[in-house]
Amino acid sequence: MPTALEEAWDSVETQGALDELISLAQKHRAQEHPEPKIYDDHIRKHLHGSIFVGHINTDLDSVAGAIGAAALFDGIPAISEENLNGEILFALKECNIEKPTFVEHIPGAKDDAFFCLVDHSEVKQMCKILQEDKNRGNRIRGVIDHHALAESLATSKPLFMDLRPWGSMSTIVTCLYMQHKKYLPPQIAKLLLMAVLSDTLNLTSVTTTDADRQVVVLLSSYGKVNDPDEMARLQFQAKTDWIVNLGAYEMVRGDQKDFSAGGWKCGIAVLEVTTVEPVLAVAESIIMELRILKKEKGENKKTGERDMRAELDFAFLFIVDIVGNTSKMIISGGRELALAKAAFPGCKLTEAQPGITAPGSTIKADETLMHLGEGMVSRKAQFAPAFLNAMSGNFTCHKKPNSERSLEELQKEAEEDMNELLYREAQKGFSHNSVSVARTSQLLNGSLGGASMALSKKRASMSGESSPQGSPKK
Ligand SMILES: [Mn+2]
Questions:
Q1: If you measure from the C-alpha of residue 55 to the centroid of ligand 1, how many angstroms do you get, rounded to a whole number?
Q2: Is the pTM of this model over 0.90?
């Protein structure tokens, strides 16, 4: 089997050009920039001193990109959240680079500092400071990204933007080093390499482009990484070990994004692992957390008020098997089942965990896990488009979109809704510390049992029936 590096070399059509790039860049190592160019100088001046920060629910690409771009443009690298995932921590250690400062601790960040966003452009993915700042349009001076440009992004002044349809933001940053002929220190090269490997799943994801392959070759050379395949394996293993220890609460909220179409709102969480079994072992808890998450999305964090129309209609968790190059999707209820079938027709369904209880009356226990086909690994390129396509078509199920219903209607229905009961019970019983949220399994089982009992009694008293669907395991 050829290594990722060898494959990348083979796929690079312009090897001569690449050699030239390397020698050119090496010539400029550690030298003063010899030929000031209007292009470079003005961008440098524009971004100088800015805080470079990635998205919340942060990932290695966001952190590495912020570090790389800040070093290139003489800015300040920042992290959007205090807690970093196991892959990021592993990469920083491996590259001997210090963890950047949490953005809220950077002087001026809350007042008048300028920002360059990396790896995102949507308001809802921005760090809390920017989300809450009505003046952010004055403060965002740059965006370097490889996602669709957000409709929600607006600035009051012209800004520097570099958006390219590549597999990783760190690929763009690497090219910016070449463009600006600036010395790329080996540690930063290694960190950027690890970020490209992370975002492209070691160059196997459908989002991978030739630009990413070329950059992997280049960065392996600069960063002195002889075997990027082995590097990818180690970092994915670090991420998997970390995920397995997270627990269901963090699993469904860690790398989670919402998508809307046709009045529907769908949340997609993704876990990238080298082995899926440890995640499936807690599938029942994951389903419960997905059901609670849907309700949580209606909370207004600032006012503490709830808007049930803002709740998710659907919540999914995809477990991406990086080694097998395929995915499994946890289906948390009847609505999710209907949408999953519309988005991914013909995919096999099984139970997510042996002996699992069906999460509702419109789904069976052996329909709680969908097995997606080979090569299905990307939220951006595959999962989200499939759902968006289904939702914007004439998709219907047994419920209408939350956004199209009246508050009265939703509030009335909530009294009968298992998810609502779970949500209320869960709010009573969990401990929250700065590192993670722990719902003890006892509490969970107790809550689920309690909620189910309450619902069961209520239904029985209302209709005379006595065996509600969706009752939990003892
Ligand atoms: Mn990225």
A1: 9
A2: no
